[in-house]
Design a protein that fits this description.
With 281 residues, the protein is α/β, with parallel strands linked by helices. It has one domain (2-280): NAD(P)-binding Rossmann-like Domain (Rossmann fold, 3-Layer(aba) Sandwich), CATH 3.40.50.720. 36% of the residues lie in helices and 18% in strands. It is built from nine helices and ten strands. It has helices at 13-22, 77-97, 132-147, 172-179, 194-206, 209-212, 226-237, 258-262, 269-280, and strands at residues 2-6, 26-31, 39-42, 56-59, 102-108, 153-159, 161-163, 188-193, 216-219, 222-225. The strands form two sheets. It has a seven-stranded parallel β-sheet, sandwiched between helices. Helix 1 (13-22) packs across helix 5 (194-206) and helix 2 (77-97) runs parallel beside helix 3. The longest helix has 21 residues, at 77-97. The protein is globular, with a radius of gyration of 19 Å. The chain starts with a strand and ends with a helix.
């Protein structure tokens, strides 16, 4: 399949690019910068998309203030929505008009918003976003679902925090602070290896249209305490400062991933974390 991938040069997009290529797909990267291993077509959110010759679309591009996702609107919420909500919906409308067979949107667990902490988040829960980021993702999910039909299958992936090896991985600054002996604040959160996210996207590209059914799919794996993470770092590197206190995992709202599991998705778990850390360090 010839897959158009937006955001291929980003922290998450690089995993999607590698996973799609490993699955035998030919990737056309839509974005501002060329990326190795894919045909590149210059494109920005909000512009007309160069989709000629593509069979499917995976949309991971996201315009935000540097280093920020939730809160990524910075001081320009109107511009944030214009690019990310309106630009994404334009892209999906163009994909359908161009005759692409399916589209997968990289959404976020942020759509669940203000459910009580510690509550298990099942895919049939009604979204209740409590940030502009979550509201934007939910609006795009709904707009994409409304386009489904007539040979155009759609799905949204609600991803949790994505980790994995790379030149600027998500824990780089944390690891540097730990190595320097700085005090580290306690934290516990859900995490997902980027290659497992890519595997989920590939499954949705290949699954029967009836499986997608314009639905949203949770994508999450391990609940990870920062203390446990940094213990592993210290064991690998032989260095590091004081470990943070353990956070209260009872406050973590983990996502159930029943829909992906039903089509054969199996994330790598804690063993995958250890392998990734060795590559990062």
């Amino acid at each position: 399949m010839r897959v158009a991938l937006s955001g291929a040069s980003g922290l998450v997009g690089r995993f999607l690019l590698g996973g799609l290529r490993a699955g035998g797909h030919e990737v056309v990267a839509l974005g501002r910068r060329e990326v190795p291993g894919a045909e590149w077509r210059s494109w920005r959110l909000g512009e007309a998309a160069p989709l000629a010759g593509c069979d499917a679309l995976v949309h991971a591009a996201f315009s935000h203030a540097p280093g920020r996702y939730r809160g990524g609107e910075g001081d320009d919420p109107a511009g944030f929505l214009r690019l990310n909500r309106d630009g994404s919906l334009r892209l999906f409308e163009e994909a359908r008009a161009a005759g692409l067979s399916r589209a997968v949107f990289l959404s976020s667990r942020a759509v669940y918003g203000d459910y009580p902490t510690g509550m298990e988040l099942a895919e049939d829960l009604a979204p209740r976003p409590d940030t502009l980021y979550g509201e934007m993702k939910w609006a795009v999910e709904q707009g994409l679902a409304a386009l489904a039909g007539s040979g155009f299958a759609t799905a949204s992936l609600r991803a949790t925090g994505v980790y994995g090896p790379g030149p600027d991985h998500k824990w780089r600054e944390l690891f540097e602070a730990f190595a320097a002996g700085e005090e580290i604040a306690p934290r516990v959160a859900t995490e997902l290896h980027g290659d497992d996210l890519a595997a989920a996207a590939a499954l949705l590209l290949e699954a029967p249209e009836a499986v997608l059914a314009a639905r949203s799919f949770n994508a999450s794996d391990i609940t990870l305490d920062r203390r446990d993470l940094l213990e592993r770092v210290a064991r690998i590197t032989g260095q590091g400062g004081a470990l943070p206190d353990r956070a209260d995992a009872a406050h973590v709202s983990a996502m159930r991933c029943d829909r992906l599991a039903a089509i054969g998705w199996r994330p790598r778990g804690i063993e995958g974390l250890d392998a990734a850390l060795r590559a990062m360090l």
